[in-house]
Amino acid sequence: MASLDQIDDHILRVLGMNGRIPNIELAERVGLSPSACLRRVQELERRGVISGYRAVLDRAAMGKGFVAYIAVGLNDHTKAGQEAFERSVAKAPEVLECHNITGSVEYLLRVEVIDLAAYKTFHTDVLGTFPQVNALTTYVVMGSPKDDRA
Fold first, then answer.
1. Domain for residue 75, yes or no?
2. Is the whole model's pTM more than 0.85, yes or no?
3. Using one digit for the tens of pLDDT, what is the confidence trace for 117-150?
4. Which residue of 44, 60, 83, 146 is surrounded by the most CB atoms within 10 Å?
């Protein structure tokens, strides 16, 4: 796979901030003609570098202002145990991200709910029922001075 050059990187940064930017404006911002810019974007899409476009949602405006990260330790370290945990997590709408990580625990989850009471319910009635879970450590987000997720 060919590596990305500075222009590709610039295109990706601009699209990461505003995926709906018109091609003419994108071309101006990155210093290309509109046709050259469009060809580059289409090539980035074709190569899978750009895998899609989505809306960036304001969770607080949607009533989901409580955000927590949860470190999850499993009691079953087999492939089957991990796959069972991942299937269970995939069904939980409160979990917006699930990452298999290295270190003293196996997973890091990002959870968004309405408030602390809703989190307690999720913690107890959802995560607490997964048979593979051995340990949970919750980190409550107090603020997000930088969040560039697209």
1. yes
2. no
3. 999 999 999 999 999 999 999 999 999 898 877 6
4. 44
